[in-house]
Every structure is written in structure tokens, then in C-alpha cells.
């Protein structure tokens, strides 16, 4: 009979017992956790980059939108200028700043008078010109939007307009008294007809309320757009005037016969 295996025999392969952990097959390491970590890091990087790009692009997008609104506003004023010139051609005078009743009470704005020259004849025909603009007889028209009178940058009630006349005895619009181009001796290109005032001075498009020279000068120009606003000159040209304009120059642009030397404004 053979002798049992001697545990102390160095030739015995089981003489040095391996730890149990080492005897078991090692599990394969899962790559799922690594993939999730990599994807998560990539997502965070993408979010961060997207945020940076959005921060860079947003001001540019806003500036582009305002530029488009400013161009549309300029086109509105050009249409108004053309309508005023066509009115002058038809009646040999500009409309008064506002019409009045027999007692001198203001009734309607110049914006009402030029409606037929803005392709709004049908709307004009609905107005009772003998009654105030806000009379019950004119309520339907007063609630109607005229797109040409709406600055796209203006917020709030779309029936309120920024396009107003500067009512002044020395200006193109001297209240209820109409003016002829021949009376503008400073030159049509140097004289303001209509200004785009700040939103705080907006009026209903039918209302005979306008703006006077003192209010215009106190505002330092107009600010419906960044840095200033548009002004319609008597020759029909539209200019963008900054808020930093010299009040003396601005006053000279309003008067029609002061013989001011405005220079390059």
C-alpha cells in the first residue's frame, strides 16, 4: 500500500494553499460605468460650450432684430413723407397739425387727413370729421390699426403712435394753420416735418395731440431706438438723429424760416 501524500512534501502542488479569492475566477471589469462617465463629461462640455456660444450669439441676434425694426420704421416714415407730398400736390398745402371745430376745439390729427394717400380711403370715408376723433361715432375707426403709424420697436398699445408733428408757430406745423412748401425758406432738406418721439410721448394715431418744441428739446431728441430716432424732413428724406444732437441745431431744424446755418448735422 502506498503511503498517503505528505502535506509537508514540497513536491505536493497543494502544499501551499492559495487564498480562496485567488482560487476563484476574477470577474471581468464592466465598461458601462466608464462609458456613462465619458458621456456625462461630454454632455457637460457640450452644455458649457453651448452656453458660451448662446451668450455670444444672443446680443448679435438682438442687434440684427433691432436693425430690421429700425429699417421698417424708416420705411414707415418714408411712406408718411410721400403721403404728405401727395397731399400737398392735391391741395397746394400741407394738412394742418389738427383740424378744429367752429369753436376752435381740436378734432382730428394730420394723420387722419393723409389716410387717402396711404391707401386707406375706405377707412377715411368711415370717419365723421365733424365730430372729435374719440366721439362714439368714430369709435370703430379709432379701434382700427393703421400699420404705417406703428413703429415695430414700440411696445404696448399698437394704436398709439410715435410719429408726431412738432407744433410750433415757427415750424412746418403751426397748429390749425396749414403751411405751403414755398413758406419753408430754410430749405426743405433742412427743415423737420415729423419726428419719431420717445414712447412716453406716444399718442393715439387719430388724436390731435402732438408734441411742442419745448418737449422735444427737453427730451434731447427722441429715443424709440437705441441712441435716437428718425425724423422726416420736408423734402421727404428720413434721417436718424442721435440723442446727443445739439439742442440749438435741433431747434433750428424745426423752424422753417429762421435762416439758421445747420452745417452737417
From TrEMBL:
Q: Does the keyword Aminoacyl-tRNA synthetase apply?
A: no
Q: Which UniProt keywords apply?
A: Membrane, Transmembrane, Transmembrane helix
Q: Which domain of life is it from?
A: Bacteria
DUF1559 domain location: 62-207, 224-247
Task: Mark the transmembrane ranges.
Answer: 35-61
- The answer on whether this UniProt entry bears the keyword Oxidoreductase reads no
> Which Pfam families does this entry report, sorted A to Z?
SBP_bac_10
* NCBIfam families linked: pre_pil_HX9DG (TIGR04294)
Full protein name: DUF1559 domain-containing protein
What species is this protein from? Rhodopirellula halodulae
Amino acid at each position: 500500500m502506498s503511503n498517503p501524500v505528505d502535506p509537508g512534501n514540497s513536491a505536493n502542488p497543494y502544499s501551499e494553499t492559495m487564498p480562496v479569492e485567488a482560487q476563484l475566477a476574477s470577474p471581468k471589469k464592466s465598461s458601462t460605468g466608464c462609458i456613462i462617465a465619458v458621456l456625462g463629461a461630454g454632455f457637460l462640455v457640450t452644455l458649457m460650450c453651448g452656453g458660451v456660444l448662446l451668450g455670444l450669439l444672443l446680443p448679435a441676434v438682438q442687434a440684427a432684430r433691432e436693425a430690421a425694426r429700425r429699417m421698417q420704421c424708416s420705411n414707415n416714415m418714408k411712406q408718411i413723407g410721400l403721403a404728405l407730398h401727395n397731399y400737398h400736390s392735391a391741395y397746394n398745402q400741407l394738412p394742418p397739425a389738427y383740424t378744429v371745430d367752429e369753436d376752435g376745439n381740436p378734432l382730428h390729427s394730420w394723420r387722419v387727413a393723409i389716410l387717402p394717400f396711404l391707401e386707406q380711403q375706405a377707412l377715411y370715408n368711415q370717419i365723421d370729421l365733424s365730430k372729435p376723433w374719440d366721439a362714439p361715432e368714430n369709435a370703430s375707426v379709432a379701434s382700427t390699426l393703421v400699420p404705417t403709424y406703428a413703429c415695430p420697436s414700440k411696445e404696448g398699445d399698437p394704436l398709439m403712435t410715435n410719429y408726431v408733428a412738432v407744433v410750433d408757430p415757427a415750424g412746418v406745423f403751426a397748429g390749425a394753420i396749414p403751411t405751403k412748401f414755398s413758406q419753408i425758406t430754410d430749405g426743405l432738406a433742412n427743415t423737420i416735418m415729423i419726428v419719431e418721439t420717445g414712447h412716453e410721448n406716444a399718442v393715439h394715431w387719430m388724436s390731435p395731440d402732438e408734441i411742442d418744441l419745448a418737449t422735444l428739446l427737453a427730451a434731447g431728441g427722441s429715443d424709440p431706438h437705441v441712441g435716437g430716432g428718425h425724423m422726416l424732413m420736408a423734402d421727404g428724406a428720413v434721417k436718424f438723429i442721435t440723442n446727443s444732437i445739439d439742442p440749438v441745431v435741433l431747434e433750428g431744424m424745426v423752424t422753417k424760416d429762421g435762416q439758421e446755418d445747420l452745417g452737417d448735422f
